[in-house]
Amino acid sequence: MTNSTYPIGTPGTKWNNSDKAQWLARQNIKRSYQDEVVTLVDDLKSILNVEQYGELNYAAGVYPLYVLKTPHFNADKPTVLITGGVHGYETSGVHGALRFAKTSAIQHSEQFNIIVAPCISPWGYETINRWNPDAIDPNRSFYENSPAHESAAIMAFVKSLDIDLMAHIDLHETTDSDNSEFRPALAAREGTTNTNWNIPDGFYLVADTNKPEPEFQKVIIEDVAKVTHIAPSDENNQLIGVAQEQFGVINYAARDLGLCMGFTDAPYVTTTEVYPDSPTATDEECILAQVAVIDSALKFIINKQSK
């Protein structure tokens, strides 16, 4: 599919406000942020501190934004940020963050202060969408004066903490709908020609070109391989059109691209990419893969600091 066949816009011309309004009118609520996410956040109030860091006001409704924090923050401990649902349609990112918060966060809290933002884009979660209602991709909008309210809210919250982060792990998925819907929509919005990439069959990581930490990424891949299969590179030794740096790992210039994993100065960063459309993967497997990434990352940092 190219932008000439996408049902909105004029081929070769960027969308105007009318085109964006037409796109928005095609979106509809498919699941409930309140029922599927907020209730799980509320259930964790007995073990974690829950804090509302913002609120999104859209025509579809008002969306409160929450973080979960391990109790007894201590300035002598390193602090870790876990983000999920930057792309709301990437379900295991949201539920992997919540599952980690429920099952593992407390046991890691002796060594770390942990902040979990499980669903940065709740409207995207409800509409199973990559963009927000303004047809903006939050994961290309992590920069000063961001036009995406979702990105601006979590950045402002982290800045308000005035602490240095040791690690930031951003939980994502790569789905077949990236090629069937989201890349064609992007090309139409930008007035360009769409070229789809091969969707990798399996899990992979995206590291930051400016601080790739290959040993860190390698250990995570090895641990996730115990839960789900790692994506092999294509015939060009690439994943999603990008050269593979090592098995299951590619690099992106995170800050230049406005990616969530690039907005802090944390030395250890990675973005997960789970593949939920694999015929061999289950929803539970995808969630457990996300949890395995976080557990592995924290274990690596502890081992590194003890040497």
Automatic annotation (TrEMBL):
<comment type="similarity">
    <text>Belongs to the peptidase M14 family.</text>
</comment>
<keyword id="KW-0378">Hydrolase</keyword>
<keyword id="KW-0479">Metal-binding</keyword>
<feature type="active site" description="Proton donor/acceptor">
    <location>
        <position position="273"/>
    </location>
</feature>
<keyword id="KW-0862">Zinc</keyword>
<dbReference type="InterPro" id="IPR055438">
    <property type="entry name" value="AstE_AspA_cat"/>
</dbReference>
<feature type="domain" description="Peptidase M14">
    <location>
        <begin position="29"/>
        <end position="297"/>
    </location>
</feature>
<dbReference type="Pfam" id="PF24827">
    <property type="entry name" value="AstE_AspA_cat"/>
</dbReference>
<protein>
    <recommendedName>
        <fullName>Peptidase M14 domain-containing protein</fullName>
    </recommendedName>
</protein>
<dbReference type="InterPro" id="IPR000834">
    <property type="entry name" value="Peptidase_M14"/>
</dbReference>
